[in-house]
Design goal:
The complex is a heterodimer. Chain A contains 4 helices and 30 strands. Chain A is mainly beta. Chain A folds into 2 domains: 293 residues, Neuraminidase (6 Propeller); 126 residues, Rossmann fold. Chain A is globular, with a radius of gyration of 23 Å. By secondary structure, chain B is of the alpha+beta class. Chain B is built from 8 helices and 4 strands, in the order αααααβαβαβαβ. Chain B has a 4-stranded mixed beta sheet. In chain B, helix 4 runs parallel beside helix 6 and helix 6 packs across helix 7. The longest helix of chain B has 21 residues. At the A-B interface, strand 22 of A face helix 7 and strand 3 of B.
């Protein structure tokens, strides 16, 4: 992670400001690029032609794709003002023009009228050096789903070039807090670029620790609506919710098992915070850890056979792993005085955590195969790291001024982007799973 | 519920002048006025006008038991009972000696007033992860609970809750704010 080769570049704001103007009013988060990457793959995404439509589109599909690809840190999308031509079909592309300005890939597309009130979004991904098409798709979509289509296209492009499934067409959940004296806590779900925020729950008491069910249909979270921390599960589409844990003391840090049938939770009903596993259907509890120290922040390994958690049994909080079959927890972190709030990469080989040392709390990644610890961030108060479902990005919260803000950082730490909120103090972001209805 | 709320409100009001050392000095004039007022209510025990020492004051409150109700005792300013916040070091749930003296008075008061309930609300500063802090706030409340039980309070008088870092007393990102946020608040209810 050599900082000196990472050139900082600030998007002029002009391009960005313009795209903002054309967005729906409910958008509360926008992406600001804070650090870019040298060595990212150069490519261009030409504005999609929509001249044949009877309406003027507010949604700029090419812009959404460009922002997504830039945010990944894998690509560097050329500023549209530098494009030598504006082709919309592969047959119109003069490849040498793009090659001469160093572009390796090119995306062209158009949005056409389709019968039945639908649009037909067509795009082609072109290899500039080989002068051939790599991908070509046509999406029949309703106008209101145009943004989603732009994310789907981003995923297809990302996967075709990198070989890794894209995670742009997924969602994030987070808690935002509004007001100083009379605080309002809002649990929200939004697209990964911060658009389309939906309020899941509002409360005048704290909301905490959202956790996605593996099918992406429900959230578990902690609510203080009864003046104490209790765990609820809420189905997103129907807003149906139920309290699943309201014991004396703590009911906190819910985490769904990979099969969605169990919830790891933290209870202190037996006086010290310990990890329990609850069967979601029967609510039956099983105690997994038993120690007078704090045991909290459980997260499941992808195989569902063990749980990584935070414990201060050594005197300072560190990460441990315990098998679902019982046995003694094994300590995983040894570097740094404070290692908490782990998330596990989808392949189980890496952990991200809050790493506290020298009065700074940063996000670090532990490579479990060689025990290397890599610092991904360098702010003072970073927390709540959460992997994207493809494991390539980490979403986390930081503090800027007196507000909580969200960032995304690529897993190598080289590319970092801020999601800035216009309203409220944002915290506890958690990245949802892949959507399941993918063909 | 009303009582609960008013007790909470009261503790908030009293927070402003609670018994950390610097404030105690600042409150000297209020203290004199309070001593005079107490002199009218009780049997002249507080007439000396000297700065009350915590231990002897606990005894004094025990002696006043016959004449003052639990509510009246709680309403008296400038007694150890009026101090309802216990502060902690970073990532610690250990109660320091000064706080111990306060908690002895609270424990004795609970032991002598079975109709009184207290909720111990644990809080932390903002640093580190939220769920760990929620557990740390819980542990702080538990350690205050243990002390109160040791002083003679009974288990059914005490409830504990943690808010972790969710409800700071003071906003800010420095030790001045953090030191005020690492706390357990005692919220009384009289049945």
């Amino acid at each position: 992670m050599n900082k000196s080769i990472a050139i900082k570049w600030i998007f002029s704001g002009l391009l960005f400001g313009l795209s903002l103007l054309s967005l729906p009013a409910q958008a509360v988060i926008t992406i600001e690029i804070t650090e870019g990457v040298e060595g990212a793959i150069p490519m261009a995404v030409v504005e999609f032609d929509s001249a044949s439509l009877p309406l003027k589109l507010k949604t700029d599909v090419a812009e959404i794709i460009s922002q997504n690809l830039n945010r990944s840190g894998v690509f560097k999308v050329l500023n549209a003002s530098k494009y030598p031509e504006q082709p919309h079909y592969s047959k119109d592309v003069v490849y040498p023009r793009w090659r001469s300005i160093g572009q390796e890939y090119l995306v062209v597309g158009r949005i056409l009228n389709k019968s039945g009130g639908k649009l037909d979004v067509q795009f082609q991904l072109l290899d500039v050096l080989k002068q051939k098409q790599l991908l070509g798709y046509s999406f029949p979509v309703r106008l209101r789903n145009l943004r989603t289509t732009a994310h789907e296209i981003s995923d297809l492009i990302y996967e075709k070039i990198t070989g890794t499934r894209g995670a742009f067409n997924t969602r994030i959940a987070y808690v935002s807090v509004h007001g100083q004296k009379n605080r309002r806590y809002v649990l929200q779900v939004a697209d990964t670029d911060g658009f389309n925020p939906q309020t899941i729950l509002e409360s005048d008491q704290p909301l905490m620790s959202p956790s996605w069910s593996p099918d992406g249909q429900s959230l578990a979270y902690v609510s203080f609506e009864n003046k104490r921390p209790e765990i609820f599960i809420q189905h997103l589409a129907t807003a149906r919710r139920s309290k699943v844990s309201g014991f004396r003391g703590l009911n906190s840090a819910p985490a769904w098992s990979p099969d969605g049938k169990q919830l790891a939770i933290v209870l202190s009903k037996d006086r010290s915070a310990d990890i329990y596993v609850m069967d979601v259907a029967s609510k039956k509890l099983r105690r997994l850890t038993r120690h007078r120290a704090i045991d909290t922040e459980p997260v499941w390994m992808p195989d569902g056979q063990s749980i990584v958690f935070t414990s201060d049994r050594s005197g300072k909080p560190q990460l441990y792993e315990v098998s679902l079959n019982g046995g003694s927890p094994r300590r995983l972190t040894f570097e740094g005085r404070y290692n908490t709030a782990a998330d596990v990469s989808p392949d189980g080989k890496r952990l991200v955590m809050v790493y506290g040392e020298g009065g700074q709390y940063r996000i670090a990644e532990l490579d479990r195969e060689n025990d290397n610890l890599n610092l991904l961030t360098r702010n003072k108060l970073d927390e709540s790291p959460s992997y994207s479902p493809n494991g390539e990005m980490v979403l986390y919260a930081s503090t800027l001024g007196n507000k909580g803000v969200l960032y995304m950082v690529s897993r190598d730490g080289r590319s970092k982007h801020k999601l800035s909120d216009q309203q409220g103090d944002i915290r506890e972001p958690v990245w949802g799973p892949f959507k399941q209805n993918r063909q | 519920m009303n009582r609960y709320l008013s007790a909470g409100l009261l503790s908030l009001l009293l927070l402003a002048g609670c018994a950390q050392q610097p404030e105690a000095v600042k409150n000297q004039t209020e203290q004199d006025a309070a001593a005079q007022q107490a002199g009218q209510d009780a049997n002249g025990q507080t007439g000396e006008g000297a700065t009350p020492i915590a231990g002897s004051d606990a005894e004094a409150s025990a002696m006043q038991q016959d004449t003052l109700s639990a509510e009246e005792l709680l309403a008296q300013p400038d007694t150890p009972l009026a101090a309802r916040t216990i502060y902690f070091d970073y990532d610690s749930a250990k109660v320091d000696e000064d706080s111990m003296v306060l908690l002895e008075a609270h424990g004795a008061f609970l032991a002598e007033n079975g109709n009184v309930r207290v909720t111990l609300v644990g809080h932390t500063d903002e640093r580190g992860s939220r769920d760990y802090n929620l557990a740390l706030g819980d542990r702080r409340a538990q350690s205050v609970r243990r002390i109160l039980l040791f002083q003679g309070a009974s288990t059914d008088q005490i409830d504990t809750i943690s808010y972790g870092e969710e409800q700071p007393a003071v906003l800010g990102h420095d030790e001045a704010a953090w030191s005020k946020n690492r706390r357990v608040e005692l919220q009384y209810q009289v049945k």
